[in-house]
Amino acid sequence: MAAVTRGSFSVFRRLLSQQYRRRCFRLQSFRCEQSLQPVAFRFDRNLQMFNSRALHTATVSRGPIVQFKLSDIGEGIMEVTVKEWYVKEGDKVSQFDSICEVQSDKASVTITSRYDGVIRRLYYDVDATALVGKPLVDIETESSTEVIQEEDVVETPAMAREEHTHQEIKGHKTQATPAVRRLAMENNIKLSEVVGTGKDGRILKEDILNFLAKQTGAILPPAPFQEIQTPPPAAPSAAAAARPVSAPAAIKLPPAMPKPVFTGKDVTEPLKGFHKAMVKTMTAALKIPHFGYCDEVDLTRLVALRAELKSIAAGRGVTLSYMPFFIKAASLGLLHFPILNASVDEGCQNITYKASHNIGLAMDTAQGLLVPNVKNVQLLSVFEIAQELNRLQALGAAGQLGTADLSGGTFSLSNIGSIGGTYAKPVILPPEVAIGALGKIQILPRFDAKGQVVRAHIMNVSWSADHRIIDGATMCRFSNLWREYLENPASMVLDLK
């Protein structure tokens, strides 16, 4: 009986479609009768609600409305928080136009359009949780067979996981599908290095494979980061040039603190984004038995060396801090103690010694604690590390660090001294096995080789190591070597590659 009913409905729908086309064509032939055209328009809009492929071939005044879904952004992420909408209902968009910014527990991602059309519906408010695979917006697209057929394929459940929604990780101005991004990440390739041969410079899978074919060696060096160089400092103005040298510099006032607001009420809100990721990471870190070790480092010679090189780096458009030296010294030490650049599996049955030194730097941002990492430090110079740090710090301040910058770390340093404090107890970031916390640099009295009291630039360092696989002697020897490189920075030249 159900089959007969479905057959009858199919015949009725076919007859109705034929009558609709004949009526539309008949009305179009009577151009002189203006009163008939509004009737045809209303009839057309009502019939457009039928979900039938036969109606797709009809001549309609509005294009089909496509449900633009949130596709897989990798890393097993199933939900994100909508942080900002760049469009509103009624706005016209083109392919690759930014639609919104979403934030997962790993990175911020900008979602871009894959269609030309008009936004008809936003499914989520700001700070709402959006689910992967669910509609994000409705877009009224141009009425073309190509668009309709493409969306028919996307809505097929078996093909939903292969939906090629164009998305870009903020900070990487590239156009590529999630599958291409995953292929690049697995092969340690920065998309900014690859020349796209697709439409509007879009990077295709073939472009990644061709790029791989030109490379030699398993570890690929990072890009020279030419696109992130900041312009050199501006020339001093005439007023500044005329100012006497002996004039005291203007006092830099500390940033104004926002006035606290006391409401007198308890506020409860769910943990989202990076805060939720911190809960997950620190819960895993609690299972690791931490071994702590502290020491002090005399940076007097490094302070003098950095003062000489700072202006040279500034002339190349790069701000040179002490961190590039700390990171490079750590990499040189990891070459002698590779167990500190390793990871263990969940059951602590196997250890993997990492070939790349992807050294992370803990950053205090408006979004919370983030730890982006500098890839392949063992292949970089101090200047190249400074370039990459400038890029990461700029993205961190803007809240635009991508998944590629935040994943893949093998060893971490936390510069807690930039805020204050001398000692800390850093927590290991799984699956890493060691981390160091750097205190502030203080000018303190110390004895020189002749027994004379001198001014010295002293910094304290606090190490934490996974005591399941790293013993205290190994951590101590690594710290001594790292300290030696920094106290005698000229010795680093002998081991630089």
Class of secondary structure makeup = alpha+beta
Poorly predicted residue ranges: 1-9, 19-61, 145-173, 216-250
Helix content: 25-40%
Radius of gyration from the alpha-carbon trace, in angstroms: 30 Å
Number of helical regions: 14
Short key terms for the protein model shown above:
eight-stranded mixed sheet; 32% helix; 497 residues
Describe the structure.
This protein has 497 residues and is an alpha+beta fold. The protein has 14 helices and 19 strands. Strands 10, 13, 14, 15, 16, 17, 18 and 19 form an 8-stranded mixed β-sheet that branches. A 5-stranded antiparallel β-sheet has the order 7-2-4-5-9, with no helix packed on it. It is globular and about 90 Å long.
Task: Summarize, please.
The protein is an alpha+beta fold and 497 residues long. The chain is built from 14 helices and 19 strands. The strands form four sheets. Strands 10, 13, 14, 15, 16, 17, 18 and 19 form an eight-stranded mixed sheet that branches. The protein has a five-stranded antiparallel sheet with strand order 7-2-4-5-9, with no helix packed on it. A four-stranded antiparallel sheet has the order 1-8-6-3, with helices on one face.
Reconstruct the topology from this structure:
Layout: H1 2-29, H2 36-47, H3 53-56, E1 65-69, E2 79-85, E3 92-93, E4 98-103, E5 108-112, E6 117-122, E7 129-131, E8 135-141, H4 145-154, E9 167-169, H5 178-186, H6 205-213, H7 238-242, H8 273-285, E10 290-298, H9 300-315, H10 323-336, E11 342-344, E12 351-353, E13 359-365, E14 368-370, E15 373-374, H11 382-398, H12 403-406, E16 411-414, E17 434-438, E18 442-447, E19 453-466, H13 472-487, H14 492-495
Parallel strand pairs: 13-16, 16-17
Antiparallel strand pairs: 1-8, 2-4, 2-7, 3-6, 4-5, 5-9, 6-8, 10-19, 11-12, 13-14, 13-15, 17-19, 18-19
